[in-house]
Sequence to fold (277 residues):
Amino acid sequence: MTKNWFFCAVLFFLFHNAEAVDDGLDDLLNHDSGNSRVFFKIDQGFRSGRFLDQRMSNLHYSGPGAVINFSRYAYRKDYNSELSFARFYFNPSLPRHKNTIVYNAGGGIRYLHLNRVSPVGPFQVHVGGEVNFSADARYAPRLANSFLFADFIANIRPKAEFSTTHFFLWKDWDIDLSLAWGLGGYALSLPRYGVSYRLADDGGVALQGYKGQILHPANYLNLTTSLFIRESFGGAGNPNWFRAGYIWEYSSVKTPHDLYFQNAAHKFVLELYFRVN
Fold:
């Protein structure tokens, strides 16, 4: 009981202090003239993932995991951009029968650019796109000759972000909503068949080859939505800020031989922005 009261007191202090120093986060970010404000951004949080890789198995695997990301974020009145140079996640996953664990890990880099456009009703709107390079690997030590699979994907994704302010409980909250979807790209799938090794020409074994393919709407679906609240905590002279929220991601790739790799995840993330210029 004492611990619960202490936790509530810490949350109240954090948000009460944020309200006291917050003269409007957009005002803090925009009070410089045409100069960019550059931030070092750290994301961290929890992930609940579920995937299907028909090259490996027809079972769905799911489990909890963690995510972390480091990036450079630049903000101006007319646009914002972000370069994510270290993005990682890890999920130990199990099927329903709980006998075969799969270690699912991934990472990548991303560049995002969003231009500010005319407001739509109560929303400030940014539209643009991002370029992603990602890798996703699955390691299942109990699956013998179907134990290691990976997909390397480069894609282009349009994105829209909507920001507004809404009064709830004791204060005004800055709220961000976003939607991004995959337009196309290129993928390398390893191995190309459902086994990790094949019989080599010399009678031994060799790693199974990979298969590359162009991604388009007929063989590729990729969606990401998010909802965040946004607050400052550094004051007018040094507007560090944070966002806390929820992200839902889904992707489906039809690999060679009509086999699917599908991956979905719920993420609960805290993003910290520290000004560096």
